[in-house]
Design a protein that fits this description.
The structure is a single chain. By secondary structure, the protein is α+β, with helices and mostly antiparallel strands. The protein has five helices and four strands; from the N terminus they run E-E-H-E-E-H-H-H-H. Strands 2-1-3-4 form a four-stranded antiparallel sheet, with helices on one face. Helix 3 runs parallel beside helix 5. The two termini are about 35 Å apart.
């Protein structure tokens, strides 16, 4: 039986940032594969490069070197528009520091994310996403009216939508 090709394959990924004290190498020749249908976790201490790696995989940052193959397409070689299109169709990104638009309610934030992804935002689906994460009761609340945990769950609902 033929082995299915990996969903995501990262090959020799390297990323550095320029700081006041010089160059800071965050990731050095990272390689891994994720198989379709698998469940994976990314663990590491604070500052170890987890968010940088996820930003690279989602096409939010560009690597210094290496390849990021998603279904055979090298994300590192895509332009910003193609990356945004790929991200809107295949990746849900929840920023560390929120990501909710402060002037929109929870349901409006989810609807906004759905519209960006080219999905018709229907009340039933919006409510289902919020309910799945236990925040449907906050659907008409603004981010400033939610706890930090509730806001993160709304952001996850946006990513799932």
């Amino acid at each position: 039986m033929d082995k299915q090709s990996p969903l995501l394959k990262v090959i020799d990924l390297t990323k550095s940032f320029f700081t006041d004290s010089g160059v800071s190498s965050v990731l050095k020749k990272i390689s891994f594969e994720l198989e379709p249908g698998s469940v994976n976790s990314l663990l590491g201490s604070s500052g170890s490069g987890k968010s940088t790696l996820m930003s690279l995989v989602a096409g939010l940052l560009r690597p210094d070197s290496g390849s990021i193959l998603f279904r055979g397409t090298n994300i590192a070689e895509l332009d910003d528009t193609a990356c945004a299109r790929l991200r809107s169709r295949h990746f849900g990104v929840v920023p560390q520091r929120g990501g909710l638009l402060p002037y929109l309610t929870a349901e409006e934030n989810v609807a906004f994310a759905m519209n960006l992804a080219g999905v018709e935002a229907r009340k039933r689906e919006i409510t289902a996403h919020l309910d799945e994460l236990g925040v449907a009761h906050r659907s008409r609340h603004f981010p400033r009216e939610m706890s930090g945990g509730e806001a993160v769950r709304v952001a996850v609902a946006m990513a799932l939508a």
